[in-house]
Amino acid sequence: MIIHYEIAAVILIVAIMWNRILNKRLMDASDKMFHYAILVAFTSSFTNLISMYTISHAKEVPLAVNYMINSIYLLCVNLLPLICLMFFLTYLIPKRKIRFLNKIFFGVPYVYIVLCILANPFTGQIFYFDQNYVYTHGPGMGILYAISGYYVFCGWVYVIWFRKVLDKVKKYMIYFFILGNLLGIILQYFIDGLLIVGYFVAVSIVMVYVALQNPGENIDPWTGNYNKNYFARCLSNWIKEERTFSVICIEIDRLKVIQETLGQVNGSAILTQISEFFNSLSQQNGVFYLGNEQFALLLEDKQKTKPLIGKINSRFRKSFKVEDMEIMLPMFIGVVPFSDYVKTAEDVMDAIGYSMIQARAKGNNSIVYADEKVFQHKQRDIKVEVALKNAIEHHTLEVYYQPIYCVANKTFCTAEALVRLYDKELGEIEPEEFIPIAERNGSILKIGQFVFESVCAFIAENKLREKGIQYIGVNLSDIQCMQDHLAVDMLQIMREYQIPYDSIDFEIRESAQQTNGSFVQQMQQMMLEGVTFSMDNFGTGNASVNEMIQCPFRTIKIDKDLVGQMEENQKTACIMRNIINLFKDLNIALVVEGVENENQARQILNMGCDYIQGFYYAEPMNGEAYLQWIAQYANPS
Predict the structure, then answer these.
(1) What phi, psi does 107 have (nearest 5°)?
(2) What is the model's pTM?
C-alpha cells in the first residue's frame, strides 16, 4: 500500500486546524460545516493510517478491532462528501434555510450507508476478512462509492446554479475541490492499494480554506477587529438561524481628527487602546470595526447588554493616555436588540444608522435604543423607494417652480425648479424624504435628467425670456457632480432645446466641490458657454471663502435655517448682516431662502440682500400656475 499520500493528508489537515486556532473567527453555519469537514477529514485519514497497520497485521489484531477501525474510516470518508455539500449550500445561500425536503433528499443515502456499515460485520456486504485474514471488498462497496459520487455531483450542480455569487477565483477553487474529490474516488476505486482520497481531500480543503475561509478577508487592518463585511455576514446567518442577539454600536466622536492631530504613531496607539478595551468586554463574542469611527459588539446573550453599556460609559468618562497626553473621547451609543422587525442584516444596519443619528442629536455620551419607530421608519423608506421607482418608470414626477423676488428691480425675474413626488397610497412625499433615498439607490441621476430636460422644454415652449424671466435655477446633486461627462451632457441637452446657455443657473451644495476634484473644470467648461452657478444652502457646511473665490458663483443662497434663527437670536442676525456685506464686497449676489413672514422680509431687505425666496412671497407651483403668476407679477409693481 502507498501510505505517503495519507501521511501528507494528515499533516495538511493538522496545519489547517492549527491555523484556525490561531485566527479568531465567529462560527456561522458555513464555518461550522467547514469545521466539521476538517474534523471528519482528519478522523478519516488518521483511522485510515491505523487501518493500514491493522489490516497488514490482521492475524495478530483482534478481528473485532479491525472491523471497528475500518468501519469508523468508512463512516467518515463517506460522511465527508455530504458535509462538503452542506458547506457549499450554507456558503452559497447563507440567507436561506436548508429545506426539510433537501435534508431528507441528502440525508437518506447516508443513513443507508450507516446501516450497511453497522450490519457489515454480520453480512460482509461492504468488506470482510477471508480465511487467510485478507481484507476484501464486498459487493456493497461500490454502492458506497456511488453515493459519495452522488454527493459530489449535487455539489457541482449547486455551485453551477449559484455561480453568480462567487468571484472567478473562488468559483474555480470550488470546481477544483469537486473535481479533485471525484478523481480521488475514481482512482481509489479502480486502483487497489492507492490510498489517495484523503490526500485529494486535504489539498482541496487547503485551497477552499485559502479562497473561501481566508480569515484575512474578515479582519480590519487598522484595528485587528472583524470588518463590516463580516459583520453583515454574521448578522445574516444569525437571523437565518433565528438566534436572539443584541448589537451595541459605539461611535467615537471626531476620532479621525484626533488621530490626524496626534500623528500616525500616537493615533495608532489610541486606536489600539480602544480596540483592546472593546475586546476585553466581548471575549466570546465579536468586536467589529464598521468604519466611520464606529465599533460594534455582537452579543448573543442579550442580558449582557446593559452591564456592557455601563462599562463602556464608565471607561469613556476617563481619559485615554498617549505618552504624556490625556485625551477625552466623546462617544455615542446605539443599541439594536433583536425583534420581530429584524428580517435582514440590512434592517439591523439601517437601525444602527438611524439610532446613531438620534444619539448625535442628543449629544455626547448619549444612548439611543432602536425601537419600533426605527423599523417603521425603515418600512416607510421602502414604500417611498417603491413609489419613487414607479414615478420614474411612469413619468409621473412633476416639476414645480418657486418664484424668487429681485429687490433691485422689484420683480420676480427668476425661479427655482423643484421636483415633486405624489403617490396614491402615501400622498405627497416631501423632497427631504425621497431625495436622500434617490441618492442612495442611484436613481437621483434619472431624476436629475428628468428635471433638467423638463425645465429646458418649459423655457423653450413658453419663451420665458420674452416674459421677463432671466433664468431658472436647477439643483445638481453631489452624485450628478461626480459624473465626468456632466458638462457634455448638459450642454447637449440645452442645444437640443435651443435655449440660451445663460437661461440656466445650476445650484450646487458646498459638498459638491469636495466630492469630485474635476468638477471645477466641468464648471469652467459650462461657464465658458454662458451657464452660471450658485452655491445652495450656504451656512450649513464648511465651505471657505477661498472656495467661493476659486469657483465664481453667480449667487450664494443662504440656508433657510439661518433665517429661522434670526428673529430669536441677535447673534444670528449679526452673522447674516456680515455675510451679506462680505459677499456684496466680493460682487457676488445673495439669495436668502426660507423667508416666511413680513418681519423676516423687512429684516432681510434692511440688510441689503439682492434676492429673496420663500413662502412669504410665493410657494412652489406647477408649470401652468407659474405661467399665470408670471403674467400677473413678473413685471414691476
Answers:
(1) -80, -35
(2) 0.60
